[in-house]
Amino acid sequence: MADAAHLVLLLVVHLVLTALPGAAAVMLAARRGLRSVPILLVLALAATGIGAMLVFWAFYATQEIGKTASYLLVFGSVMAIAWSIWEGGIEAALLRQLATPVALWALGSAFLVFFGFVHGGLHEPFTVASTRFNGPLPVDNYLPLHFSDWFFEHGHEHPHELVGEWLASDRPPLQTAFTMPQRVFLWDSYGLHYQVLAVILQQLWIVGLWALLLAARVGALTRALVMLTVLVSSLAIVNGFYVWPKMLPAAMLLGAAALVLTPLWAEVRRSGWGAALFAAMLGLAMLGHGASAFGVLPLLVVAAFRGLPGWRWIGVALFAGVLLMAPWWAYQHWGDPPGNRLTKWYLGGAVEVDDRGVVETIVDGYREAGFGGALHNKGQNFVAIFGGGMMAKNVEESVDAAERGDWENVDRPIRSTFFFNLIPSLGLLLLGPIAMALRFRRRPREPESWRLACLCLAAFGIGVVLWALIMYGGSTAQTVIHQGSYLLPLLGIVGCALGLRASFPRFGLWLLGINAVLMLAIYAPAFEPPAGTVYLSSVTLLTIASLAGFLAVALLPALAPSWATTAANTLRGRARTRVRA
């Protein structure tokens, strides 16, 4: 019970501290007349990221300046919210609409924290995170905390201890930045605060996806089903609890997708604020992880097809993007050079650290491979995306284990396939495009869902092709899921789920429900728990309660009209009875 209470306390504290800058931006924008809920949610994501980066650069100066900036960010946000409430003028209906994604984000974060620690291990958060759902996984989840510790204590000085030869400039700083203002208020020495905060950050995809579905005018029930499908997907469970900074930039890209893949694009591409907001979301994604480029590219391609903005818009977007990214580029070049290890790895296939530049590394890599080798590498990239030999081996191992009645070794290969291979990771959802093909010549049951499904799958397909062609390939720089942008699997999940509901709504309802149950069954067991730990009944109950709460809140907009209709019919019936009496 003490462990459960401690987790609840940490969740509340870090949820509030993370939400304050975004809430302040939303309240101020609403006071100025902005009423579009999707745009307000994207603005909230942008404000949280920009606020975190401002504090990060303040700590780069000195610890005193950084702490002052932390207090200003938090208490300034509180004052802005209080002033907006005091002045009034914001409709209660708008606040209720905004409260839904905030509640989903809080409940989704709670679900994953409790689900991850269902077997205990609160005093070994990094061990639990690296083995709970897949693994053991490498130290990437620790790197943002490592750099946060050093910057918090030493400001701009070069980190004296390297983890795996990673420089601070090799790893974009967004997740590190988010930790800086919060550790001024509440922190620990063994990493549990960081683990809970980082889970909350990864779950920001909930806000971005809600904005996307709402902007596309997807029906309330379908919206709830899609949110649940992503929440219990292998992508969100594994990569949300093992907190390497990859779901966080995907959340920012979902915010950008809400502007591009929906009717909002007609307005966004004609306004200066739209240019700045779109550029901010792309810039924050790149500040989260360099592989976000593989998510940025398909969004730009789709945006161009849906309607090119004018030159002035492009100029504003470039200015805003450069303004956001320039300090990081300068730091990579002068503060802690060279900062190009990931780029050389992904584009040139060079894993080992050396003194070569990016262009030289890429040229050397392709020269060494030759035309035939390069072509083979690209082919292997497509094979990796579709599963190939690795998936076949995992299927064989699962079948053999099933024949022996060995559940653990049935489950492990499935988790491995879902972790590495993009197309197989979609599982039952792959029936979505098939359902759409069967329904192609007939009118879809849900036109808005159909339209967004087509756009999501188009962006997914474009992104997959570009990723396979740009990624170097070979055994070290291959197109496994974690070496790309997590926007692509998110778009795949969303597109398939929407396609099912748009084509055959009742069948889609049942299939998405079955898929959710199967995913929970696959990831519930803890196969490598820390020594001396047991399943915690209190945490298990909180896991179930938070998941049920998430589903209830997501379904509320779908149920509210029926409740209103029932209540109205009841009142009419009573009125008729009185008249007759």
* Sheet with most strands: none
Contiguous runs where pLDDT drops below 50 for at least 5 residues: none
Estimate what percentage of residues fall within beta strands: under 5%
Give me the count of strands.
0
Shape call: globular
Features:
globular; mainly alpha
Describe the structure.
It is a single chain. This protein has 581 residues and is mainly alpha-helical. The protein is built from 25 helices and no strands. The longest helix is centred in the C-terminal third of the chain and has 44 residues, at 537-580. It starts with a helix and ends with a helix.
Outline the fold blueprint.
Layout: H1 2-31, H2 37-61, H3 63-87, H4 92-116, H5 125-131, H6 143-154, H7 174-183, H8 192-202, H9 205-215, H10 220-231, H11 234-241, H12 247-260, H13 265-268, H14 272-288, H15 293-306, H16 311-335, H17 341-348, H18 358-386, H19 388-404, H20 407-420, H21 431-438, H22 447-470, H23 487-503, H24 505-523, H25 537-580
Helix pairs in contact: 1-2, 1-3, 1-4, 1-8, 2-3, 2-7, 2-9, 2-12, 2-14, 4-8, 4-9, 4-25, 6-7, 8-11, 9-12, 10-23, 10-24, 10-25, 12-14, 12-15, 14-16, 15-22, 17-18, 18-22, 19-20, 21-23, 22-23, 23-24
